[in-house]
């Protein structure tokens, strides 16, 4: 999978997702989800791992773990959506299985919220 075509690149894209969509949080991760384009387009994903998480090595490890969790479930993400995963302090100490459960749970909750919102608007 080529991540460059499935990433959020600019600050404006990150802002559009975080301000215009829904949010769901778990103990160490917050998921922001928004519809950016038409249904046929692939989802686009961005990661926010601040310096509060740790040094560059730790932040990169956290990003790689989050990317792998999203990659393994990429086909289940809503088409045309923008997704931002924001890491919270303590995520670097969380076992992979727990982190995966948190991300999957937060993605599911955000998807349900977005579906409810789009149904009531339509």
TrEMBL record:
<dbReference type="InterPro" id="IPR014721">
    <property type="entry name" value="Ribsml_uS5_D2-typ_fold_subgr"/>
</dbReference>
<dbReference type="GO" id="GO:0042781">
    <property type="term" value="F:3'-tRNA processing endoribonuclease activity"/>
</dbReference>
<dbReference type="GO" id="GO:0030677">
    <property type="term" value="C:ribonuclease P complex"/>
</dbReference>
<dbReference type="GO" id="GO:0001682">
    <property type="term" value="P:tRNA 5'-leader removal"/>
</dbReference>
<comment type="function">
    <text>RNaseP catalyzes the removal of the 5'-leader sequence from pre-tRNA to produce the mature 5'-terminus. It can also cleave other RNA substrates such as 4.5S RNA. The protein component plays an auxiliary but essential role in vivo by binding to the 5'-leader sequence and broadening the substrate specificity of the ribozyme.</text>
</comment>
<dbReference type="InterPro" id="IPR020568">
    <property type="entry name" value="Ribosomal_Su5_D2-typ_SF"/>
</dbReference>
<keyword id="KW-0694">RNA-binding</keyword>
<keyword id="KW-0255">Endonuclease</keyword>
<keyword id="KW-0819">tRNA processing</keyword>
<dbReference type="InterPro" id="IPR000100">
    <property type="entry name" value="RNase_P"/>
</dbReference>
<dbReference type="GO" id="GO:0000049">
    <property type="term" value="F:tRNA binding"/>
</dbReference>
<protein>
    <recommendedName>
        <fullName>Ribonuclease P protein component</fullName>
        <ecNumber>3.1.26.5</ecNumber>
    </recommendedName>
</protein>
<keyword id="KW-0378">Hydrolase</keyword>
<comment type="similarity">
    <text>Belongs to the RnpA family.</text>
</comment>
<dbReference type="GO" id="GO:0004526">
    <property type="term" value="F:ribonuclease P activity"/>
</dbReference>
<keyword id="KW-0540">Nuclease</keyword>
<dbReference type="Pfam" id="PF00825">
    <property type="entry name" value="Ribonuclease_P"/>
</dbReference>
<comment type="subunit">
    <text>Consists of a catalytic RNA component (M1 or rnpB) and a protein subunit.</text>
</comment>
């Amino acid at each position: 999978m080529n991540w460059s075509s499935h990433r959020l690149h600019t600050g404006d894209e990150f802002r559009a997702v975080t301000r215009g969509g829904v949010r769901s949080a778990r103990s160490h991760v917050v998921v922001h989800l928004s519809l950016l384009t038409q249904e046929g387009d692939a989802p686009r994903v961005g990661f926010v791992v601040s310096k509060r998480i740790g040094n560059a090595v730790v932040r990169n490890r956290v990003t790689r773990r989050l990317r792998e969790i999203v990659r393994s479930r990429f086909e289940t993400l809503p088409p045309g959506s923008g997704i931002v995963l924001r890491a919270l302090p303590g995520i670097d100490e969380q076992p992979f299985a727990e982190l995966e459960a948190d991300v999957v749970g937060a993605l599911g909750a955000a998807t349900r919220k977005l579906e409810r919102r789009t149904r009531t608007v339509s």
